[in-house]
Amino acid sequence: MSKKSLEELFWIVIDGWAYGIKQYPGEIYPELVYRVVRELRTDIQLAIQCNILVDVMLITEKFSAAAKYLVPEKELAFNILAQLPCPSELKTEDQLYTLAQTVDRVEQMYPGAVVSRLEKKWQLNQAQAA
Amino acid sequence: MVDNRDGMESAVGLGSGIASMELLSTRSTEIAPDRGLENEVVPSRERSDLPEAPNLDNDPNNEFLISLAYHDAFAAQRSLFGDKEIADFALATARKDFERSLGIENGTFRAQAHAFLERS
Predict the structure, then answer these.
(1) Do B87 and A35 touch (CB under 8 A)?
(2) Please, are residues A119 and A99 in contact by the beta-carbon 8 Å criterion?
(3) Which residue in the set B36, B94, B115 is minimally distant from A19, CB to CB?
(4) Interface predicted TM-score (ipTM) of this complex, two decimals
């Protein structure tokens, strides 16, 4: 399977979850959407490892619309960011570059709020792992 | 430390829901793969009260009857869960419906991504 096909599959997964949120029969609440985001952790990490750019803002937009804008977008975007792999878990320059690009797009949206928090989180993760 | 206001607190203890989600996804296949959810209040029942799918292979109406029996089992099952689990169940079922409509199976991306990584 080519990287392009893999990328298409990744977005089918995202669309599938957006569909699930949209079709949810009860009232949408933030924790429900965050639970879905946590479920996506493995998929997001695999996407980065396969050098697929994870467009956090696009995922945010899709989930936010599916949740009828009942979840704060910034909160949602940062929850998705929190699922990104720690740089120390990545093996190649390409993977690190993909991660950097992914983070950079969100940094452009929320200047000064992203990189410093992610670095703290990754340091915390490494300290816990040690 | 982490700033809770931005939702980064969810980074701690990640993945705890995945196992239960997979369990619930499996459950949705076993119980009622194509049933929607309804919001009526279901009285509590004991697990042993869950009806089993009847053997109606020779009954011309079996599909209808089985769906009724499954619906009943599903309704009873619902009473055993809290709201959060029901939400997961609903999402997992809806997602499966979506993926099935596209002709792919749950987990396709993960399987293909692992294969891609092994090759590269």
Answers:
(1) yes
(2) no
(3) B94
(4) 0.83
